[in-house]
Design a protein that fits this description.
By secondary structure, this protein is of the alpha/beta class. It contains 14 helices and 15 strands. The strands form three sheets. It has a seven-stranded mixed beta sheet with strand order 4-10-9-8-7-5-6, sandwiched between helices. It has a four-stranded mixed beta sheet with strand order 1-2-3-13. Strands 11-12-15-14 form a four-stranded antiparallel beta sheet, with helices on one face. Strand 7, helix 9 and strand 8 form a beta-alpha-beta unit. The longest helix is centred in the last third of the chain and has 24 residues.
Length: 468
């Protein structure tokens, strides 16, 4: 049996190998070189255990994705069984496999309206990338070849491929020297009601945003705008909820102008808001295209999908006998990933996790509301099992701390010391726990956040800050 000293040496060696060789997604070079990684060794349900044996309540849900929780033996069995039976088979051109066909049919059954067609990919970024290409292909086949421009929103996050990162626009991510598609991708304001201009009320703000969209269409040219990309609730950009009837009115304008509406449900689909999909069930719209990933397999294996309407398919698949859809991925419809997704959906159905998420989501919002009166907390917002704390220096003026204070990282580090993981993003702390989370675990998380906020506030006061 490995001794504690051997375990410690092994953990240190892994930490050093990681720091020396692994370029992490969104790595901050200076702090990573100094602090390295927090190594996770195992997970069970909503809890993670690091290489030193300490346990953490995972209020991140991995990265918006571990919906059914970790360590599910039946997921392991389903993955192993399919690996033994058929570990891989190409789905290019005219080949397929049973899990891929069954999963496509299951997704079509769950999706809203006539979104009955599924194009598989490897994750959320590639699902968005595929949607971008599908928009261009559809508009070309429909006889509108100039409709290659797309409109998205500032502070949106749609992935990290060249196309998906260009469609998204998180200002903090655009400071570091990467290049983006700028000629055919355009951005309008984010629906941030907390910081609405001139203290607009919800309806006035919705009117303002819709008018801005109309103006952008006119500016680009209605004959050139091919699609609008939007998260039903903006996730990494700050859990921003759409005001009033904003999304319905945007959808109507898209329909009127032959603009495809692409709903990025990589975060919100498969239970995060207590529904299979949020677009129709929560916000009353049926998009032309929906992109999904994350909760599709609950993070057990990488898989994404671009779900689109029968109307789109009829247009792209008829009219030219030589036409071919020249877009796809080696691992699209991977049999093992599809088997994992099918088992994941079965678990969500069997255990009524959508209903559970709705119930505990309401409790989650109620408990987080207790933090609104605390210093450093300007806003608490969210829905279902996705919430955000916006951290401010002055709650009356909504002024934020300078970037160098690293306010959200301080809070998340403090929470981590209490055994609770929350995500720091700029001046925000974001949470998206597994759908299986319990009310007692929510109590634990909120209690730890209270202590973390008190500790950080005290530290800041000792440094000369005066949070109010």
């Amino acid at each position: 049996m490995e001794s504690m000293s051997q375990r410690s040496r092994s953990a240190q060696q892994l930490w050093e190998l990681d720091r020396r060789h692994f370029l992490h997604p969104f790595e901050h070079f200076e702090s990573f070189q100094e602090d390295g990684s927090l190594f996770m060794e195992r997970g069970s349900g909503c809890e993670l255990f690091d290489s030193e044996g300490k346990n953490y309540l995972d209020m991140l849900g991995g990265l918006w994705c571990t919906n059914i929780g970790l360590g599910r033996e039946e997921m392991v069995d389903a993955i192993a069984e399919q690996t033994r039976k058929l570990a891989y088979s190409s789905t290019f051109t005219d080949m397929s496999n049973e899990p891929a066909a069954r999963l496509a049919a299951k997704i079509a059954k769950l999706a809203p309206g006539n979104l009955n067609r599924v194009h598989f990919s490897t994750g959320g970024s590639t699902a968005i990338d595929s949607a971008f290409r599908l928009v261009h292909f559809f508009q070309q086949c429909a006889g509108r070849p100039d409709k290659v421009h797309v409109i998205s929103r500032r502070q949106s996050y749609h992935g990290s491929t060249y196309a998906s990162m260009s469609i998204g626009y998180k200002e903090a991510d655009r400071k570091h020297g990467f290049k983006y598609i700028e000629d055919i991708v355009h951005h309008i304001s984010e629906p941030d009601l907390y910081r609405a201009p001139n203290n607009m009320d919800e309806q006035a703000f919705a009117d303002h945003l819709v008018k801005e969209f109309e103006n952008k269409i006119d500016e680009v040219g209605v004959h050139r705008v091919g699609a609008f990309f939007a998260e039903p609730i903006m996730g990494a950009g700050g859990v921003l909820l759409p005001p009033a009837d904003y999304l319905k009115r945007i959808r109507q304008l898209c329909t009127e102008h032959d603009i495809l509406y692409v709903s990025d449900e990589v975060v919100t689909a498969f239970g995060r808001l207590g529904h299979w999909f949020a677009s129709e069930d929560v916000f009353g719209i049926v998009p032309d295209i929906i992109t999904v990933a994350k909760g599709l397999s609950s993070g057990y294996l990488p898989i994404g999908a671009t779900i689109y309407s029968d109307k789109i398919h009829e247009t792209i698949s008829t009219g030219d006998a030589s036409r071919t859809y020249t877009s796809g991925f080696t691992y699209a419809g991977h049999p093992v990933c599809c088997a994992a997704a099918l088992k994941n959906i079965e678990i969500i159905e069997r255990e009524n996790l959508l209903e559970h998420a709705s119930r505990v989501g309401a409790y989650f919002g109620q408990k987080l509301g207790e933090l609104k009166e605390m210093k450093l907390v300007g806003d608490v917002r969210g829905m279902g099992l996705m919430y955000c704390l916006e951290n401010v220096l002055d709650r009356s003026t909504k002024a934020t701390f300078p970037e160098e204070v690293s306010i959200s990282k301080r809070i998340s580090d403090s929470a981590e010391s209490f055994g609770v993981l929350v995500r720091p993003v700029g001046h925000l702390n974001i949470m998206s726990p597994p759908l299986i989370i319990t009310e007692s675990q929510i109590d634990r998380a909120v209690d730890c956040l209270k202590e973390a906020l008190r500790r950080v506030c005290k530290e800041l006061q000792q440094e000369g800050w005066d949070p109010v």
